[in-house]
């Protein structure tokens, strides 16, 4: 889901008299570096995430700096070039020391986190084969904590053989004060070296180029930075002064006319325009008691009436009353396509009764069938590579059916407190087709009948379609993604509400899909509505909150209360700038359940 109306952050610079300084981590440059493919040469289809935590003392300074460039070493034997797509990188001041980092990625990320790279990362054959030049330097104070570099390649990112990175392993005599955490981008946790932070350090060699941050630097946040007229924008000051008294005054020019529009620290301003793609420059001038005034001017910073196609979700879905729901699963992060199969397991917190199963058919290549295997175990399955081969008595359900339907057992299945529920499931096409495991966050914390459970990954390294569910199974821990299967439990409800999203931006001459998930297990159908604008405030109705204005220009029935609705958009330039507002209804008339989705607003436009 594209989120185009996001905060835009920039930190102003002035050219300082001091020369740039480049420092290498480790400070003593070894003659060679051991090869390690993670993260720069990792090719996992599920994506990859690595955090490097570098001790700030290696910079050799005790004052704030502006980091302008990062370069990472290739291995001594790697000479190839390549690239990775869908990469994002960020820097932050880590609250965790380099030798005390944890498996939880979020623990290493500081409050000052800033994205420094997004897009396709290119690799060259030089010794420093990763070169990131920051468009906006990162303000870092080594006295406040260590430096966290966070690399994420999303699921679907393409890797073309850049070659392994150059890692350095410290010794007791010469420690390398750096470490890493690595794992799947869809999981909140990863792995450490040999289960713990390497005592003497182990990470990719890195070169940091910086300038001293002594002085006065203007900076600000704006939200939103584009939208239709009239556009109200909130500006938030992010200026920095090394003077103890801080910034003393602010002078804003919001429209590039060289006139001061506000002297508030955090003002708002409303932009109006009649034409498409009207841009405005924004300037901020700040003063303190110790330095010359500093001005930051951002060219074409605000864009009013953009002709670029975009979409935006608004509001929130609602039900008229608590609705029956499967056990809540995490959102899909990626897919694992294999003859092997994945799932999850947990210990029953109390008695519950299961009466249905469904595998998400959410890959772009839709499948025709699904197969599910369910086990009642006396104890948790062993940790991989140790396996357990369940007996026929352990296997309480095995079935294959049409994808997109709920597979029902012959009779409801009872699980008692303390028993272990384990499930494998995936969609496929035919008896010999690959399993399309729908991955979600590992170590998933959810509830059954409002009692907390933690779902860890369950694996079978063979095909349960072939062995009818009676192959070896094992626990694969909480660090790796679970395979999502919806488990219907009698009396279970959740906080899920109907959701409406778009598959892509509504570009003229293309087809954009509206994806509707009613999150109502007993739904007969849903209805998609096209309105003529947003409601100023949500209007309560017996069916949920109405978020779009009638009259409704289009009503489409959605069988089963979930599905994909393709919307062809004519390639007609007169439609540029047209705004469409969508909302959907889901219902179970016999049960008396009704729900309305969030709203989705389209701005038809060009690429």
Question: What labels describe this entry?
Answer:
disordered N terminus, Jelly Rolls, 47 strands, 4 domains, 607 residues, mainly beta, Immunoglobulin-like, seven-stranded antiparallel β-sheet, globular
What does this structure look like?
- With 607 residues, the chain is an all-beta fold.
- The protein folds into four domains: 21-212, Sandwich (Jelly Rolls); 216-305, Immunoglobulin-like; 313-490; 499-604, Sandwich (Immunoglobulin-like), CATH 2.60.40.
- The chain has two helices and 47 strands.
- Strands 23, 24, 40, 43, 45, 46 and 47 form a seven-stranded antiparallel beta sheet that branches. Strands 26, 28, 29, 31, 33, 34 and 35 form a seven-stranded antiparallel beta sheet that branches.
- The longest helix is centred in the first third of the chain and has 4 residues, at 105-108.
- The radius of gyration is 27 Å and the shape is globular.
Helix content: under 10%
Let me know the largest β-sheet: 7 strands, antiparallel
CATH fold name of the largest domain: Jelly Rolls
Query: Structural class, please?
Result: mainly beta
Overall CATH class of the largest domain: Mainly Beta
Number of strands: 47
| Total of helices | 2
What integer is the average pLDDT? 89
Shape: globular
Specify Rg, calculated over alpha carbons. 27 Å
Q: Identify low-pLDDT runs.
A: 1-18
């Amino acid at each position: 889901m594209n989120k185009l109306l996001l905060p835009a952050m920039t930190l102003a610079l002035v050219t300082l008299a001091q020369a740039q300084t480049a420092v290498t981590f480790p400070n003593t440059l070894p003659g060679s570096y051991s090869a390690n493919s993670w993260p720069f040469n990792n090719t996992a289809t599920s994506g990859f995430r690595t955090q490097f935590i570098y001790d700030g003392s290696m910079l050799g300074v005790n004052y704030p700096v502006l980091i302008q460039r990062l370069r990472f070493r290739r291995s001594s034997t790697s000479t190839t070039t390549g690239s990775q797509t869908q990469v994002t990188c960020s820097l932050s001041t880590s609250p965790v020391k380099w030798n005390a980092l944890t498996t939880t990625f979020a623990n290493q990320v500081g409050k000052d986190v800033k994205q420094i790279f997004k897009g396709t990362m290119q690799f060259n054959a030089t010794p420093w084969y990763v070169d990131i030049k920051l468009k906006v330097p990162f303000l870092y104070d080594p006295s406040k904590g260590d430096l966290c570099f966070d690399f994420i390649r999303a699921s679907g990112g393409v890797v073309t053989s850049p070659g392994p990175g150059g890692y350095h392993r410290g010794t007791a005599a010469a420690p390398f004060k750096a470490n890493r955490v690595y794992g799947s981008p869809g999981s909140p946790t990863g792995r450490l070296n040999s289960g713990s932070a390497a005592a003497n350090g182990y990470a990719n060699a890195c070169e940091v180029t910086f300038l001293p941050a002594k002085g006065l630097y203007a900076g600000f946040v704006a939200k939103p930075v584009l939208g239709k007229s009239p556009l109200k924008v909130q500006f938030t000051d992010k200026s920095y002064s090394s003077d103890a008294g801080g910034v003393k005054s602010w002078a804003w020019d919001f429209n590039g006319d060289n006139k001061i529009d506000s002297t508030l620290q955090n003002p708002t301003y409303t932009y109006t325009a009649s034409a498409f793609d009207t841009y405005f420059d924004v300037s901020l001038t700040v003063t303190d008691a110790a330095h010359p005034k500093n001005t930051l001017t951002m060219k074409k910073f605000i864009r009013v009436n953009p002709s670029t196609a975009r979409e935006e979700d608004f509001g929130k879905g609602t039900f008229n009353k608590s609705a029956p729901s499967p056990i809540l699963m995490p959102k899909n992060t990626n897919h694992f396509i294999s003859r092997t199969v994945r799932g999850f397991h947990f210990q029953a917190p109390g008695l519950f009764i299961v009466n249905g199963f469904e595998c998400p058919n959410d890959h772009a290549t839709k499948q025709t069938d699904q197969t599910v295997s369910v086990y009642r175990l006396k104890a948790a399955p062993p940790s991989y590579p140790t396996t357990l081969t369940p007996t026929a008595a352990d296997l309480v359900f095995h079935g294959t059916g049409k994808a997109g339907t709920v597979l029902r057992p012959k009779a409801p299945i009872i699980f008692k407190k303390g028993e272990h529920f384990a499930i494998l499931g995936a969609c496929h096409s035919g008896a010999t087709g690959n399993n399309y495991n729908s991955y979600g966050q590992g170590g998933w914390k959810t509830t059954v009948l409002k009692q907390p459970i933690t779902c860890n990954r369950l694996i079978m390294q063979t095909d349960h379609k072939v062995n009818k569910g009676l192959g070896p199974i094992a626990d694969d821990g909480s660090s790796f993604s679970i395979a999502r299967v919806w488990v219907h439990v009698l009396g279970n409800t959740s906080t899920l509400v109907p959701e409406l999203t778009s598959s892509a931006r509504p570009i003229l001459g293309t087809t954009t899909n509206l994806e509707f998930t009613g999150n109502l297990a007993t739904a007969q159908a849903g209805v998609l509505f096209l309105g003529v604008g947003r409601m100023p405030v949500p209007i309560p109705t017996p069916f949920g909150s109405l978020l779009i204005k009638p009259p409704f220009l289009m009503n489409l029935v959605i069988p089963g209360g979930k599905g994909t609705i393709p919307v062809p958009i004519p390639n007609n330039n007169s439609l540029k700038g047209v705004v469409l507002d969508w909302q959907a209804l889901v219902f179970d008339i016999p049960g008396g359940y009704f729900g309305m989705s969030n709203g989705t607003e389209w701005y038809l436009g060009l690429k």
